[in-house]
Amino acid sequence: MAPAEVADIFRIHGPSYRETHKLPLNQLCTMHAIETCRTAELGGHRDECEECGHTKISYNSCRNRHCPKCQFLKKHPCRRAGTKGDENYTLS
Prior knowledge:
The protein is α+β, with helices and mostly antiparallel strands. The chain has helices at about 5-20, 25-35, 70-75, 75-80, and strands spanning about 45-50, 55-60, 90.
């Protein structure tokens, strides 16, 4: 079983929390961004390997500065080296 992510916790407990707590708009927007990050709700694209033709779906990120998924990507070693880590894939 994969460890729970912040987005999973927000999706499960967020609605009831928002019903019982008054949150400022910026916090509501941040919660929504984290809940929808890398889901079909934000859209996506199909990546295809130029070598073998394997395809995978990549969902768009929220790019919110508070999102753990988006901040992790900025810290990933491949990012510091100036690559994405999937150089063989092209967008289609």
